[in-house]
């Protein structure tokens, strides 16, 4: 039986200042036009409990942008490539953090990819293949439900952007890929989210990149979720961001 959850009747639980701050954070997001580092995969057809996952992601989106602005909003040179990547990388980190800490997301699976070091030459084509191989290996291992060819658009994007940024970026660049997972128990109706994160730490002096990864999957406890008070305005602000971050890879 489908779970009914009408987000349109949610009460306003935030003040006008909260709404204004969220609107300003999203305005900054659009002005900054940072690289995309968060990918919500639209692979499986709509299934029971999908609306709970949508509400969860909408609520995250405004939190993510407000947190990004709190961390980096006062920095000068907002449009510098390094700061743009710092913000983008932080978004990927926050997606993983929110899945681990959201009260109605119940722990399921937690895996860590052993660090791997790969040699870089500085040649665009060579290094792009290095990034492509490392990305493809972890995504395929973490998302076996998704055909390899459907993941290639993300693999190529990550490899291309990292290869183009070589020599101009410092620190760690992160990417988060999240897959909606259907409930294994129809009676419980607990759909889930699996977040796969890849982190690339380029060692310039060593001509190497260190690649690490995590996989975290949690089930949504719909009873806990439906006890939450959401603000419709906040959800409406987050919804377009989630749509922008969603990649349709369904057949």
TrEMBL record:
It comes from the Eukaryota. This is Uncharacterized protein. It comes from Aspergillus oryzae (Yellow koji mold).
